[in-house]
Design a protein that fits this description.
The chain is mainly β. The protein is built from 3 helices and 35 strands. The longest helix has 12 residues, at 2-13.
Length: 561
């Protein structure tokens, strides 16, 4: 259960500022148009995205609603206040649409008439393909069709493996510019001759439920794409051919564009590899992916590709960010899919949480020498290592949406660092045996395999966490009660004593006995634990054991508040 919890934390709170960028140009007309974003454009507001395009007057996002009543003779008119629509208007009269999400359909109103042409570019963070058809309602959708030789496939050919979308009686509409009315959108009466433009979205009035987006289904072992982070090594790419014919898929590397202003700069393309199993040698062969390669898929069959990363080809700079795209096209010229790939240089920076298991305590009883304990005792630790190499032991930490500018997902040490209204979704972790609200850096050493980190923990004689202090016990409250009812504070050593703890974490290159080696040195670190306590006894007490820490976040930034 603990491992699952930490895995979920890691997925939720890895920094989200990284992306693989591609700019799409949309050919629009005056009046109403429909577009489809295959990538996410939330890095900027609509005001910023369309600042150079004053012809863009309104943008309406379609939000599929399973309970929406189907349209009868024509698509629904965009109407403010309905759950199905969120809206941005340039004049500021309506601003319910603050960001343009990916894999989503939009209506765009431009100035002029249907005879006016406009070219609008939107830079996007590319996303894996997805779609969700709803039975009880209209579907405004777009698809990753291929523009081979300057022409798109017909709607009939594209949906041959999903005939419910084009069955008899199904109505399909497209926007052609001009005001909303009988001539916009228009019904597609000949889907056999109608090209399916990947940059447009279309209304489908069909009673189906499914997730069809292409005749080639693509799924990844990581939902967000080929995201290797700082520690990933292999991601499985599953390809399913829905058609009744052999389909040959071409996979090619495509470089990411430069990141927009305010986003993490792209150092270079991800050095992807292809892992194949050799049945003769019973071993894996790793080949660098350069240019393109093909993969044949039998009819109604699937293949799995193991996509890896050559970290040796990356920089040693921990701040370097690699991003690119893996493009998939097929021999039928139906699909054109871009899978985002990203990776960072391997680093132990981030948030770690786990336990030290104390199994030895040096006895101070003359008649009972030795250090072996009847059973071990766990001590929880939270460790954060920032990008500069500074390690902090934390008594508590919060992971969630920060109050910082832009409200990024991040890490802070107090609840005040979280954005109001998002605290219910935040995660808090704490350590009971450390001083309250502490971020301890005093000590020496570093966090690295083969290194030792030493931290000095001071617990003042009057600290609430000092074991000698009992707030309501007159002999241990550090107060001298007088007959007149006054209390005089006592000094250190009268009723309680200051305690110092020197804890040492020796990071070993291999895990302790009985601990799995999977992820060791990347997602799991640990080794030998030693602690020397002074102040509990007239002599120092030495304890020892082992410790294991698991990565909870790769975010090397933290707000100490």
């Amino acid at each position: 259960m603990k491992t699952l919890f930490l895995a979920l934390i890691s997925l939720c709170f890895v920094t989200a500022a990284h992306a693989q960028w591609q700019t799409t140009t949309y050919a629009l007309k005056g009046g109403w148009n429909s577009i489809y974003l295959h990538g996410d454009a939330t890095h900027a507001t609509p005001d910023e995205l369309f600042a150079a395009n004053p012809e863009v007057l309104e943008v309406w996002r379609w939000n599929p609603n399973p309970s929406q009543v189907q349209f009868i003779s024509s698509p629904l008119l965009p109407t403010s206040g309905l759950a199905e629509w969120t809206t941005w208007k340039r004049d500021g009269s309506v601003t319910t649409l603050s960001q343009l999400l990916g894999q989503t359909a939009y209506l765009v109103k431009c100035s002029g008439s249907s005879s006016d042409s406009h070219s609008v570019t939107i830079t996007q963070r590319m996303l894996p393909p997805s779609a969700s058809w709803v039975r009880n309602g209209a579907n405004l959708m777009g698809f990753p069709s291929c523009n081979a030789g300057g022409s798109y496939p017909s709607i009939v050919n594209y949906f041959a493996t999903f005939p419910a979308a084009i069955a008899s009686g199904v109505k399909i509409y497209k926007y052609v510019g001009g005001e909303i009315g009988p001539s916009n959108p228009i019904q597609v009466f000949s889907p056999s001759f109608e090209a399916l433009d990947r940059n447009q979205s279309y209304w489908f009035d069909t009673e189906v439920v499914g997730n069809f987006y292409a005749p080639l289904e693509v799924s990844l072992s990581k939902a967000g794409g080929l995201d290797f982070g700082r520690s990933g090594s292999v991601i499985t790419l599953h390809l399913r051919n829905r058609s009744a014919a052999v389909n040959t898929v071409t996979l090619a590397l495509v470089a990411s564009e430069s990141a927009p202003a305010g986003q993490t700069a792209v150092t270079g393309s991800v050095p992807l590899t292809l892992r194949t199993y050799d049945a003769n040698s019973l071993s894996w062969t790793v080949t660098a992916i350069s240019g393109s390669f093909t993969q044949a898929i039998a009819p109604n069959s699937s293949v799995e590709l193991s996509i890896g990363i050559d970290r040796g080809a990356m920089s040693t700079d921990s701040s370097a960010f690699y991003a690119s795209l893996l493009r998939l096209t097929d021999s039928s010229n139906l699909i054109d899919i871009y899978l985002p790939a990203q990776a960072q240089v391997a680093s132990l920076a981030g948030l770690w949480i786990g336990d030290a298991t104390v199994s030895k305590v040096n006895s101070k009883v003359a008649s009972s020498p030795g250090s072996t304990t009847p059973r071990s005792f766990p001590l929880r630790y939270i460790l954060h290592l920032n990008n500069a190499g500074t390690a902090r032991l934390l008594s508590q930490v919060y992971l969630g949406t920060l109050v910082d500018e832009g409200n990024p997902e991040g890490i802070c040490t107090k609840e005040a660092g979280l954005k109001a209204g998002t605290k219910a979704a935040a995660v808090r972790m704490s350590v009971a045996h450390l001083p309250l609200d502490s971020a301890i850096t005093a000590g020496s050493g570093s966090v690295a395999l083969g290194a030792t980190l030493v931290r000095n923990i001071s617990i003042p004689y009057n600290s609430p966490t000092n074991p000698f202090v009992h707030q309501y016990h007159p002999d241990h409250d550090n107060k001298d009660a007088r007959p007149d009812g006054t209390n005089i504070g006592l000094a250190d050593g009268v009723e309680s004593y200051g305690i110092s703890r020197q804890v040492s974490f020796e990071f070993t290159n291999s895990p302790p006995e009985g601990v799995s080696s999977v992820g060791w040195g990347s997602t799991v670190i640990g080794g030998n634990y030693t602690e020397v306590l002074s102040g509990l006894h007239k002599e120092s007490i030495r304890t020892s054991g082992t410790f294991i820490l698991q990565r909870a976040s790769e975010n090397g930034a933290i707000t100490i508040n």
